[in-house]
Write a structure and sequence with these properties.
nine-stranded antiparallel β-sheet; mainly beta; single chain; Beta-galactosidase, Chain A, domain 5; 31 strands
Length: 413
């Protein structure tokens, strides 16, 4: 089959050569808005895990794994035009299997639920919890440990992949058969968008997010990063890092990040709330023009690399986590120890423990309703009016010509 394409790509020739489908591209110039797929590995249960590499014509590249929706790579330019990975990655699939929630999707319920479960419509649901009665990120077999199906797509100058998963009724203790889609899109302006959708056949609770760890400088920790969170209030935590139910102002506390602030100047504070989290591990109540509006929630910059990140979301909350639990026992894909503060997670979400906190925004999803949320990560370079561009082709781009995919329209629309 021969298919004519627009742009720099001249033709795609697809042939079955006695085995897997092989896609070959004849092209000139720079490839734009493309997705490549390759086998990443095989799980301990024998499941094939695919890696989808999304790329725009500026050289931005994002690698998404079908296992847990892990962001295994986000490559963007720095102030010199050099491209580098700005997320923490582990060496291989076995390392990800051994460490749940590492730069992965979170669900069914991101963050924490206390009291070993919750009551919905008069029915009690027990969740597998730790010794303190806290269930985190959907439990040991949450969405980070599931192998999702993937469908690549192209839409104009954007490329992406839609990951889909069906969570059975009762999985990890949660009610309802839940159908989930997460669409990853790389745009021409160096923006990575995550669009979440979900439906259920029974009343349930739901909190979807992503636990990607960012490090914009490539240094050992992010303490020299400057961060801004557009929130006047936050949810207080107790010793279990679970919200007490009280929402407090950030003014006059180290949690006031309404202006760009060096993280290292705050994470070692003796302030009780920072001490409880051993750094930042708090949900911020985002300032919103209206509920559900897509609005800027946070900004991060590294003066070392010149890279800047602006995060927008429709969600009401943002969990800022400064990787307080790492101690060097894990190693990244380069063999370097992952130390405390090696990255920062910006988890867009509803509030932790909402099913047990009636004053928090509801996380209940009912049959006939569709959950939707959007998070956008826009990368830029200080001093540049236009999005940055990589000066040279990265030799590790993952775009071997025989693996390029002919893409359809966005299947999630």
């Amino acid at each position: 089959m021969r298919q004519r394409l627009t742009g720099n790509t001249v033709a795609v020739i697809v042939a079955a050569l006695g085995g897997p489908l092989v896609c070959t591209v004849v092209a000139r110039g720079v490839f734009a808005a493309e997705t490549a797929r390759e086998l990443y590995g095989v799980t301990s249960q024998g499941e094939r895990v695919e890696a989808y590499t999304l790329r725009n014509d500026r050289g931005m590249r994002v690698k998404v794994l079908s296992y847990g929706g892990i962001l295994n790579e986000v490559v963007v330019p720095d102030k010199k035009g050099s491209c580098g990975n700005v997320v923490l990655t582990l060496p291989d699939l076995q390392a990800y299997e051994a460490r749940s929630n590492f730069s992965s999707l979170l669900g069914r319920y991101a963050n924490r639920i206390a009291n070993s479960g919750f009551t919905l419509d008069g029915v009690r649901y027990e969740l597998k919890s730790n010794a303190s009665g806290v269930a985190s990120h959907g439990g040991e077999q949450g969405f980070s440990s599931r192998n999702w199906s993937g469908q690549p797509f192209k839409a104009g100058k954007s490329a992406g992949v839609v990951l889909s998963y069906v969570s059975d009724d009762g999985e990890s203790g949660f009610p309802g058969k839940l159908a989930v889609q997460v669409r990853y899109t790389v745009d021409d302006d160096n923006t990575l968008s995550l669009d979440y959708r979900a439906t259920t056949d029974k009343p349930t609770v739901l909190n979807l997010s992503h636990h990607v760890y960012f490090n914009l400088s490539g240094e050992a920790d992010v303490y020299d990063h400057r961060a801004q969170v557009l929130a006047d209030r936050y949810t207080l935590i107790d010793a279990r890092k679970v919200p007490t139910g009280e929402i407090a102002p950030v003014a006059g506390t180290p949690l006031d990040l309404r202006q760009l602030t060096r993280l290292g100047d705050r994470v070692k504070s003796k302030y009780p709330q920072i001490a409880l989290g051993n750094g930042f591990d708090h949900n911020f109540v985002l300032n919103k023009p209206s509920p559900g509006a897509l609005a800027v929630a946070a900004r991060v910059e590294s003066r070392v690399s010149g890279r800047m990140l602006e995060l927008s979301t429709t969600q009401p909350g943002l969990q800022l986590y400064t990787a307080n639990g790492f101690n060097g026992s894990l190693h990244n894909s380069k063999g370097q120890p992952i130390v405390q503060g090696a990255g920062m997670a910006l988890e867009t979400q509803h509030f932790p423990d909402s099913p047990n906190q009636p004053k928090f925004p509801s996380t209940v999803l009912r049959p006939g309703e569709e959950f939707r949320s959007t998070t956008r990560f826009r990368f830029a370079v200080a001093g540049l009016a236009e999005p940055g561009r990589c000066k040279t082709e990265d030799p590790h781009s993952g775009f071997r010509r025989s693996e390029r995919l002919a893409m359809t329209a966005d299947p999630s629309n």
